[in-house]
Amino acid sequence: MEYLINKFDSIVNSEKDKAKVIYSGNGMTIDCFHLKKCTSLMESLEQPIRKEGEKKTICYIVVKGCLEFWLGEEKVTIPQGGCITVMPEDNFSIWALEDSDLFAIHNDIEPDFDNTPSELVEAVKKVELKDSYLQGHNYRVGKYSMLIMQIMCPENANYSYYLSAAYHDVGKVVVPEHILNKTDKLTDKEFEEIKKHPAASYDMLKIYLGSKNANYARWHHEKLDGSGYPDGISGEQIPIESRIMAVADIFDALTTARCYRKAFSFEKALDIMKSDVEKGKLDGKAFEVLQKLVINGKIVDGVDNQVKNQKK
């Protein structure tokens, strides 16, 4: 490993170029940047290395120095050794708090349903045919979860987490259609059938994402007080990834029309969720970030017109 460190060191310490491509291939490109104190990433270049939108996701790694990262109106400080992953459509900027070097790792794989396994795509289609509410629900929860994650734990905002959130309900394919569409209260037996879907999601996702990422979807119905399902875990046993996903899932569920009720307004949905935070069921910090995103008008960002119109 020592020779690799020396190689990277020689790259970042060579200030002949303010920015250059140091690797390209196998679906990935790595750029190296030198930023002077109080300059932005774009100011360090005479022109971008690549055309806007050409690459799909970017992970910025701070090799030396310290950066200030702005995502919309939210600010995150990234110290030496830190990293953050973003998507091209994100409204972000990067400033150097001191002379800094960073790598930008571009993933050439587009983070959307077109690049996910066909078996998952088909399963989601089957689920959406069973229940009209689920049309777009998985996708919106994926987007909302990533928006919250990019602010709370930017180092964990990666493509695998996005897929876990965006396919969190794929396991509902095992739930009978008449239960998903029932307009009155579920019986205890029917609710037991509903409670099977997170484990079913895990079984499907672990094949493609591994157990760690699949567990994030498995635990999106767990509660901090231990009253959730399928495993009844509580507190710190629930990873932050699942806690964020739970907040995103509940928000979308409340602000989307169901077969047994109309959609709640954003304000009403947040009031309901605040009560669950106070009862110790939902993660308070994740809820606060969600609330700020809603207030700033960034939570929808063109994702879903039906939800956007409710805010108006």
Topology:
Layout: H1 2-12, E1 19-25, E2 28-35, E3 57-64, E4 67-71, E5 74-78, E6 83-86, E7 92-96, E8 100-107, H2 118-130, H3 137-152, H4 159-166, H5 177-180, H6 188-194, H7 197-218, H8 240-254, H9 266-278, H10 284-295, H11 305-311
Antiparallel strand pairs: 1-2, 2-8, 3-6, 3-8, 4-5, 4-7
Helix pairs in contact: 3-4, 3-8, 3-10, 4-7, 8-9, 9-10
Report on this structure:
Helix 3 (137-152) runs antiparallel to helix 4 and helix 4 (159-166) runs antiparallel to helix 7. The protein has helices at residues 2-12, 118-130, 137-152, 159-166, 177-180, 188-194, 197-218, 240-254, 266-278, 284-295, 305-311, and strands spanning 19-25, 28-35, 57-64, 67-71, 74-78, 83-86, 92-96, 100-107. The protein is α+β, with helices and mostly antiparallel strands. It is built from eleven helices and eight strands.
Structural class: alpha+beta
The separation of the N and C termini measures 56 Å
Arithmetic mean of pLDDT: 78
- Would you count the extended β strands for me? 8
Q: Please count the helical segments.
A: 11
> Order of strands across the widest beta sheet?
1-2-8-3-6
Low-confidence stretches: 1-9, 43-55, 109-114, 301-312
Helix content: 40-55%
Order of helices and strands: HEEEEEEEEHHHHHHHHHH
Beta-strand residue percentage? 15-25%
